[in-house]
Amino acid sequence: MVIKRFRQVLPGYTRPATTRPRPPLPPVPRSLRSALKNHPDHIERLQMALHGVSVAPTTRLPRIEMAVWAIEDRLSRFLAEAKQELDSARCSDDDERFKRAEEDEALMTHLCRKNTWMGDEVFAAWFRNL
Predict the structure, then answer these.
(1) pTM across the whole model
(2) What is the DSSP-derived secondary structure letter of residue 26?
């Protein structure tokens, strides 16, 4: 005890870093993960939105409802980005870029429907148990 206290008084002493275990990230619904397998950045953005819900201060709203809203918000952003890319691809003369943008826009339109990704029990259980 005395030696520990003495070390703290010496010049150049730095406190040891305290590391807390990082909480596990909430799961992205399996159907969304498989549909967005070619868009890893979108999956990461969904993961961060869900993480924000899981660490947010408690409110009266159920966390599962907040998580659904977060996913819907991200998916609508993805759709807006896909439409913007489609518009810019339409202006360019690159047929391959236009075809890719059309496919992305169709995928995001499909994903914006709730029935395509709701019903994942692992996702629902995660937010019900918080």
Answers:
(1) 0.77
(2) P
Rounded Cα distance, 52 and 72, in Å? 14
Count of alpha carbons within 13 angstroms of residue 73, beta-carbon side: 14
DSSP character for 12? T
The structure tokens 């596990």 sit at 24
Q: Please, which residues have CB within 8 angstroms of residue 23's CB and are 6 or more apart in sequence?
A: 54, 55
Q: Strand (E) positions, the chain? A: none
CA distance linking residue 83 with residue 60, whole number of Å: 35
pLDDT in tens, the chain (130 residues): 566 666 666 676 677 666 667 667 888 999 899 999 999 999 999 999 999 988 888 778 888 889 999 999 999 999 999 999 999 999 988 899 999 999 999 999 999 887 777 777 888 888 777 6
Longest Cα separation, the chain = 76
